[in-house]
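Progress report, Aim 2. The chain analyzed during this reporting quarter is listed below.
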Amino acid sequence: MIRCAFIFIKEHALIEQEKLDALISKFEALETEMSTVSEAEDIVRLAKEHGEMRPIVEKARELLEMRAQIADLEELAAGDDAEMAEMAAAELEDEKDKEPVLLEELQFMLLPKDKADDSSVILEVRAGTGGDEAALFAGDLFRMYQRFSQLKGWKVEVLSMSEAEIGGYKEIQASINGSGVFAFMKFEAGVHRVQRVPETETQGRVHTSAATVAVLPEPEEVDIELADSDLRVDVFRASGPGGQSVNTTDSAVRITHIPTGTIVIQQDEKSQHKNRAKAMKVLRARLYDLERARVDAERSEARKGMVGSGDRSERIRTYNYPQSRVSDHRINLTLYKLDEIVAGDGLDEVIEALMTQDRTDRLAELN
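Predicted structure tokens for the chain:
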């Protein structure tokens, strides 16, 4: 967490020079501190703080340089040299036009961060209404996120899956590990709707199906303390379609968190130890998500503008194949590049628009 105080601006009012100087001084003190510590834990902590502060300080320095330039141009524009004054006045207008843009960029960077933004996530995709077509669509969505993660340099590990006979998934869980995954992926939580002609449709009619996406920030173990007395762990034999035994040992694991009634089942691995480790990872993420939801509800009603409630029951996006159109209903964004987005390559454009609107909305709330 950045130690400097946040600076809020209304109607492009100037940020006081003292506050910018204080921000830069804190950063320079941090760099000095980094050169003196030797403990690994302190080095990691300070390096993280330095990485968070550096782009903000660079923007603040850019703003200070621009203000100094404006002051010099104002002096020249008021001078006795008519030709120089005219040139300075023209350049002065250009610099003054740029200043509000820099101020706004700095505002965005100083907005309080969601604590979970740096987290890895547990991704859950489930087929909704639409039968086999919904399962196929769930598969399309998961592959979209796999490709998007690959482009971001994140690692995807499938935790569990239930495949549909026709293809796709009834449901699939995966862990996506990397830096800042939740900051991007949190905007994907909700109901995704698809409109297209299913392969099994003989009369060419467009059907509407849906899949739900849940994105749970994956907490560090220190974030969620689980007492053994709060857990009930049952083991049993894993079974596949039709009830046939997958193996002959009790490798499947069901963990119940007694206080909340949350249940997690893992049976994909042949090792009970591995299934338990995966189940605990998912359980921690679900409990962390429950706690975040509780805190958010206490603070205020969930914002209903761009990201809505974040509830996975809320329809957030429609993929219309006949028109090659993707519409995000939270920000009234429509793009006619469905193939590129579903392939994962164009998803960044949608998420960046959502992130920009989110920053704008939060800035409006502060002002």
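DSSP finds eight helices and eleven strands in the chain. The chain has three domains: 17-110, 115-218+300-366, 228-296. These observations will guide the mutagenesis work planned for the next reporting period.
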